[in-house]
Structures are given as C-alpha cells and as structure tokens.
C-alpha cells in the first residue's frame, strides 16, 4: 500500500480511486507486417469493472508523476519489463481536483506478458481493430477514441545552423562551439516537452527523439558523445539532409522541424513534416 491508495472526489462530483490521481500505460507494438498490437489487461472479477478490459494502471503516489506511476503500476500488475517501454507522451484527463494520466509507450517487440497480481485476470496483446470487440472498462472506453490516434512518436529535427544563427551571441567566431552548446542544451528535452505546436501528435507532455543536424565547420560536433540527442553531420547541405530525413518517415512517427528558413520550411511541409521556428525551441530551453 502506498500513500496514493484510497478514494478521492473530483469537482465533477465523481469518486475515483487514487488520492493523488491515477495513471495507466497504453503500450503498443507494430510488427513487421504493419499490424498494430495493444497490450491490455482484463481486470479481476472481484474489483471495480471486474472482467472488463483496459490499460494497466492505478493510483499514483504523492511523490510520483504520471509516467512513474503508470510504469510502476504496470510492473506490479503484469510481467512486462517496463524498462523496454519507449515513452512517447502523455494525455491527461482532468476532472478538477483529480486527474488520470494516460502514458503512451512503444515496444520494439511483442514480448510475452502474463498476470503478476490478483488485480489482473489476463494480460493479452490485442489487434488494434479488435479492441472495441472486447467489453471495455468504462473510463477506458470513453478515452479510447482519442488515445487510438496518439500512438505515435515525435522526432524533433533541429536545423543547427539556422537555430544557432538566430541568436547574436558570437556564434560566427566559433561555429562548432556554438553548435556544441546547442547540443548540450537540447539534452534537457529528453525530460519531456510541453506545448507542442499544432499539427504533430497531440500530447500534453511529449518525449521526443531529438536530432540535431550540423553542417560545414560544425560537423566535428557529431563525433562527440551526447546524451539524449542524436547529432548528424550533413555531408553536403544541411537543408538537403533534413529533407531526406523527413521524406522517409518511420511508421507511427511525426516529424517536427525547427527552422526559420522559408525554403526549407516549404520543402519539409511538402514532404509531410511539421515546422516551427527557433523561438518556440529557444523558449523551452530558456525555461530550464
């Protein structure tokens, strides 16, 4: 028992389990044939919504955020190694004074999963199109139409030369050093991003893959280690390399390119990517 276990009332007049809110994990996998699979829990007959299907989850504790709580609860209720989950983002259903956080995460493999507590009757991978054939847990059933559209990841592609050039901090004296500073500042985005521009996957809190594209004198930056940021050195034009990246997207992935270059913006949008300006990125880096 943790300090979050217990009932709570919300401003809408409902009673919910979780004194500090609750959270659940919506884990998915797309196989080599393109089939999308959803990991689901059938709830024990004795509990709330007994026999119905939904995501693994439960009450969060006072010291936990939604992601931490959802992964802990999932690890308690089934045999899934939650360290394999690549968290993509969260959606929060706020009832006023109480909230449920849906944590969306991808798995590279459809690993076998079994029940691990008396709260779970069955654990099963279910085809996306067959989810609604099950008798669903009522709160999950209400949120499913929104959740099924956010099972994606976001790749944040940063036009290094353009973003560095947007701030008159003497970057022209040391292009490699300026790009290295940008790389280091981008590492904080691994902790998550709030306020993604309209267009990409609609998360309240997003955990993107960050790709910094460097060119010219800044290419040596790609040879240095970086935590949470993939630095790519363009062999030629950085713009051409960025367009090549977004032109061949990975499945279940949105691309957001950060640049103020009008021609690159047009090329990226034509290739199906979303684009925002350096100010959006700098604002988030300066808040840290």
List keywords for this structure.
single chain; alpha/beta; nine-stranded mixed β-sheet; five-stranded parallel β-sheet; 7 helices; hydrolase; NUDIX_hydrolase_CS; NUDIX domain-containing protein; NUDIX_hydrolase_dom; NUDIX_hydrolase-like_dom_sf
Please summarize the sheet with the most strands.
Answer: 9 strands, mixed
Extended strand count: 16
Helix proportion of residues, in percent?
10-25%
Mean of residue pLDDT?
A: 94
What's the overall geometry?
A: elongated
Could you say which structural class the secondary elements and strand pairing correspond to?
alpha/beta
Task: List the total number of helices.
Answer: 7
Order of helices and strands: EEEEEEHEEEHEHHEEEEHEHEH
Residues in β-strands, percent: 25-35%
Uncertain residue segments? none
What is the alpha-carbon Rg in Å? 21 Å
Q: N-to-C terminal Cα separation, in Å? A: 34 Å
Task: Report on the architecture of this protein.
This is NUDIX domain-containing protein. Keywords: Hydrolase. By secondary structure, the chain is an alpha/beta fold. Helix content is 24%, strand content 30%. The chain has seven helices and 16 strands. The chain has helices at 66-77, 138-147, 160-165, 175-186, 238-247, 262-270, 278-286; strands at 7-9, 15-17, 22-30, 36-43, 53-54, 56-59, 86-94, 99-106, 120-127, 153-159, 193-194, 205-206, 209-214, 229-233, 253-258, 274-276. Strands 3, 4, 5, 6, 7, 8, 9, 11 and 12 form a nine-stranded mixed β-sheet that branches. It has a five-stranded parallel β-sheet with strand order 14-13-10-15-16, with helices on both faces. A two-stranded antiparallel sheet has the order 1-2. A hairpin with a 5-residue loop joins β1 (7-9) and β2. It is elongated. It starts with 6 loop residues before the first strand and ends with a helix. The mean pLDDT is 94.
